[in-house]
């Protein structure tokens, strides 16, 4: 099996495409099972955030795996595969490892250095673990991906500014509100992970007073209590909209929460930060007099300031080193079946020779036969020990796959090559 990552993000798709691709949390288990049921897909992890949808997979063939995953995403989103292909980036083998490490480090984020992606990757890995769609290869990849992300944030200053999608959106909002948001009243719609991040970020930025509303009032009440905000019943949303300067939308609703009709009733200038995918603001509401909408598309186009070049360079160096380490582990894992096949062949030879000896020397007692058998096994194991240890070490180095091939050729070993990369050149997509 080999690694393949396929996805669409703010770099390759606008929010209209992303909201069709987005995978609700409740739908992730079913999608994972559909993926691993495909002929060329053996393992799968799905990451779905406000600005990216990605599949990490272990596949038995590049073209077959690519086709299988594209078909599943096409069926899920309703976007024809030929149209969807224009929005996807594809990484295979080493490039897939590098991409996953860059994602966890925040290098591929809309706001470079944001740390929220680590939690999103962790959730995606846990979801795959729960439905058993992650096997040995993806378990190792995801564990190392999370470790690399933590290392990047701990050892560099890439996230020292505390940047996130929310802070970037607030920067844009400030441009429309005279540059200072201190004392501006705000309403957060949604009490999930993004809603919680929004409340925390607005509080640190001096925005307030804050109101929070959510379809589940209990969640809104808990979040409001934690930050000294006020929880508003969802059926009072219209009234709350008329009392604030800023609205942050972060729900998981599949339909717009802020319809054109609702926003027309506000009757005052309003800045709405729509961080939800699918969008919480109805598309036909954009352009209403006095309404400013900041969504994922406008954030992607705003090019918010990121960390200094030295900080991103330090993270890139970590990624390069960790990719080499992972590939070394992968090469070592790939030679394991060959080493196991060699030891099995040796055991078969010993057993065959023992049968011949017993047939020639029937006078041997059971004890004598056992002594001879143990001696032969010890000799074989001692002869194989140093070569097999050394070949594992050599296999972990660049070009190490040649040693496995050499062993198979020398000893005529029949080893399934499911762990071998198929002969497709490494591909890096538009990401």
Automatic annotation (TrEMBL):
Possesses an unusual extended V-shaped dimeric structure with each monomer consisting of three distinct domains arranged along a curved 'spinal' alpha-helix. The N-terminal catalytic domain specifically recognizes the glutamate moiety of the substrate. The second domain is the NADPH-binding domain, and the third C-terminal domain is responsible for dimerization. Pathway: Porphyrin-containing compound metabolism; protoporphyrin-IX biosynthesis; 5-aminolevulinate from L-glutamyl-tRNA(Glu): step 1/2. This is Glutamyl-tRNA reductase. The active site is at 50 (nucleophile). One of its GO terms (biological process) is protoporphyrinogen IX biosynthetic process from glutamate. GO terms for molecular function: glutamyl-tRNA reductase activity; NADP binding. It comes from the Bacteria. NADP(+) binds at residues 190-195. Residues 174-300 form the Quinate/shikimate 5-dehydrogenase/glutamyl-tRNA reductase domain. InterPro entries: 4pyrrol_synth_GluRdtase (IPR000343), 4pyrrol_synth_GluRdtase_dimer (IPR015896), 4pyrrol_synth_GluRdtase_N (IPR015895), GluRdtase_dimer_dom_sf (IPR036453), GluRdtase_N_sf (IPR036343), NAD(P)-bd_dom_sf (IPR036291), Shikm_DH/Glu-tRNA_Rdtase (IPR006151). It comes from Actinoplanes philippinensis. It catalyses: (S)-4-amino-5-oxopentanoate + tRNA(Glu) + NADP(+) = L-glutamyl-tRNA(Glu) + NADPH + H(+). During catalysis, the active site Cys acts as a nucleophile attacking the alpha-carbonyl group of tRNA-bound glutamate with the formation of a thioester intermediate between enzyme and glutamate, and the concomitant release of tRNA(Glu). The thioester intermediate is finally reduced by direct hydride transfer from NADPH, to form the product GSA. Belongs to the glutamyl-tRNA reductase family. The record marks 99 as: Important for activity. Gene3D superfamilies: Glutamyl-tRNA reductase, N-terminal domain (3.30.460.30), NAD(P)-binding Rossmann-like Domain (3.40.50.720). Catalyzes the NADPH-dependent reduction of glutamyl-tRNA(Glu) to glutamate 1-semialdehyde (GSA). Substrate binds at residues 49-52, 109, 114-116, 120. Keywords: NADP, Oxidoreductase, Porphyrin biosynthesis. Pfam families: GlutR_dimer (PF00745), GlutR_N (PF05201), Shikimate_DH (PF01488). It is an enzyme of class 1 (oxidoreductase). Residues 6-156 form the Glutamyl-tRNA reductase N-terminal domain. Residues 315-413 form the Tetrapyrrole biosynthesis glutamyl-tRNA reductase dimerisation domain. Its EC number is 1.2.1.70. Homodimer.
């Amino acid at each position: 099996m080999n690694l393949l990552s396929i996805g669409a993000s703010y770099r390759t798709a606008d929010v209209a495409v992303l909201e069709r691709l987005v995978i609700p949390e409740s739908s992730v288990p079913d999608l994972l099972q559909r993926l691993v049921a495909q002929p060329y897909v053996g393992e799968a992890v799905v990451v779905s955030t406000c600005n990216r949808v990605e599949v990490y997979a272990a596949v038995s063939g590049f073209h077959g795996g690519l086709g299988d995953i594209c078909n599943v995403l096409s069926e899920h989103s309703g976007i024809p595969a030929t149209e969807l292909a224009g929005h996807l980036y594809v990484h295979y083998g080493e490039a897939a490892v590098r991409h996953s490490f860059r994602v966890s480090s925040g290098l591929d984020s809309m706001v470079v250095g944001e740390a929220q992606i680590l939690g999103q990757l962790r959730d995606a890995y846990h979801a795959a673990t729960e439905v058993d769609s992650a096997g040995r290869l993806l378990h190792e990849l995801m564990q190392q991906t999370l470790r690399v992300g933590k290392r990047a944030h701990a050892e560099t200053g890439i996230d020292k500014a505390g940047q996130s999608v929310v802070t970037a959106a607030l920067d844009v909002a400030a441009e429309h509100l005279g540059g200072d948001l201190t004392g501006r009243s705000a309403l957060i719609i949604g009490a999930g992970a993004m809603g919680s991040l929004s409340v925390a970020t607005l509080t640190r930025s001096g925005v307030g007073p804050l109101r929070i509303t959510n379809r589940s009032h209990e969640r809104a009440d808990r979040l409001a209590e934690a930050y000294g905000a006020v929880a508003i019943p969802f059926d009072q949303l219209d009234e709350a909209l008329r009392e604030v300067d800023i609205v942050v939308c972060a729900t998981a609703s599949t339909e717009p929460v802020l319809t054109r009709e609702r926003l027309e009733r506000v009757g005052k200038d309003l800045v709405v930060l729509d961080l939800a995918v699918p969008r919480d603001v109805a598309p036909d509401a954009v352009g209403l007099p006095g309404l400013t909408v900041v969504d994922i598309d406008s954030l992607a186009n705003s090019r918010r300031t990121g960390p200094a070049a030295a900080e991103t360079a330090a993270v890139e160096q970590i990624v390069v080193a960790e990719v080499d380490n992972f590939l070394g582990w992968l090469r070592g894992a790939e030679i394991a079946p060959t080493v196991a096949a060699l030891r099995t062949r040796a055991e078969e030879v010993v057993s065959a020779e023992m049968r011949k000896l017993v047939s020639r020397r029937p006078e041997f007692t059971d004890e004598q036969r056992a002594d001879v058998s143990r001696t032969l096994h010890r000799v074989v194991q001692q002869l194989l020990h140093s070569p097999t240890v050394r070949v594992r070490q050599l296999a972990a180095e660049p070009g190490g796959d040649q040693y496995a091939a050499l062993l198979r050729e020398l000893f005529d070993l029949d080893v399934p090559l499911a762990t071998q990369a198929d002969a497709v050149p490494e591909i890096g997509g538009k990401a």
